[in-house]
Amino acid sequence: MPNNNLFVALRAAFPADLDQIAISTADSPTPLDYTWRDLDRGSAMIANLLDSLDLPPASRVAVQVEKSVEALMLYLAVLRAGHVYLPLNTAYQAGEIEYFVGNAEPAVVVCSARNFDWVSRIAFAAGTRNVFTLDDDRSGSLLARAVFHADQHQPAERSGDDLAAILYTSGTTGRSKGAMLSHDNLLSNARVLKDFWGWTAGDVLIHALPIFHVHGLFVAIHGALLNGSRMIWFARFDPRAVLARLPEATVFMGVPTLYVRLLAQPGLDRAACARMRLFVSGSAPLLIETFGEWQQRTGHTILERYGMSETLMLTSNPYRPESARRGGTVGPALPGVAVRVHDDKGGPLRSGEIGGIEVKGPNVFKGYWRMPEKTADEFTTDLWFKTGDVGRIDEDGYVTIVGRSKDLIISGGYNVYPAEIEGVINELPGVAESAVVGVAHPDFGEAVVAVVIARAGASVEAEAVVAALKSRIANFKVPKRVFVATELPRNAMGKVQKNLLREQHKGLFAAGAGAREP
User: What pTM does this model have?
Assistant: First the structure.
């Protein structure tokens, strides 16, 4: 039987000349070039270290470290040794880490040296026997131990259904759930994207995303590795520095916030992007204004796509022709992926009707770690995964995301979709962006509340926003309160954390709160 370990497929795509540059660091104190041989040897030494620990088969390896090429080698080593990679957001604090470690029971934990004291206490208390450190300056006990091991390693035999990674969801509606992704899930999606996005010889990727998330780790890195493409590696996003390296690259992947920050650079123009082939956006909705301004400034049309931790990529705007990319949509289903929209009773909807998005395909995860009941709840009887997203599919198959089902506001018995209201608010003069949430209301059940961000140099009045909306949308959709703020709370991938906004305003209409309705 063939070895279906994902690492085997990635390693097979390395160039024949292993001394070619694979990764060039762009913001390290001293710029470094890593060859494909370095990636192979480094991951082999770490894999041999893992083998020396006599871990149970398919052990979880939890990793909370800053972004570095050595952290990428660790990921490859975990795959290579046949274990399960568990990336953790670097912003997680003790309470969150305690839950993840307790739930996943990793055999190995790797953390930054500055966090070793408290992370190791949590890990050892949960029964983890091995805790290593790894920092972004190529230091730490993991590398100090690995250097004594051989730089050749035979990848562990794995079937396509074996687990390769567990990604914990954000947990905005309760405790985080661990999405279990197999070797086949990851490889099938990477191969589809390689073909669909036209990866070709000579492509160079600017990598400026975190690597604890689907977008940066699986979409971007797998794409470059599977194509044998060089990466220009930024540990942290700096718009001026990224702009300076665009002439060397052909592919850039970012979240909408990164595109907004690049647009703020006066040097962003067609000349700066002349060599670029593809700009991809995901992880959060891209404002139609950003889509249009990018097109005007650079001559390129951003390709927006849609995916989840549980499913990897599901849909994508077309690669060619570029004119077929539609702002405000995430495109049709990718090859091999099926997408449908059903009502809240499970019945099918016609083109253009709004409902719950359900998906099926080889990229869809195996279920939630140690949550069989939750897994069963999230799949239909005919085994389609209920994404929790709400949207519509037009007659051409293009998917438009309206919002999350958990963000749906039911006010006075009417369904209110935040994305619809946000779209109208964002078109008002002086508005940069907005977020709409529902909060408890004694009369309506839930009331619509909007938080609005003004453009730089512009002034926005809450009363004016309400007045403008009353002439544009049904009255039951008009926010009961509008707040003008300087920024919206976001996670590391740029998604607005609406749970924090709901928490902030949850008592707004409580008895005695003194709230008024404009």
Answer: 0.85
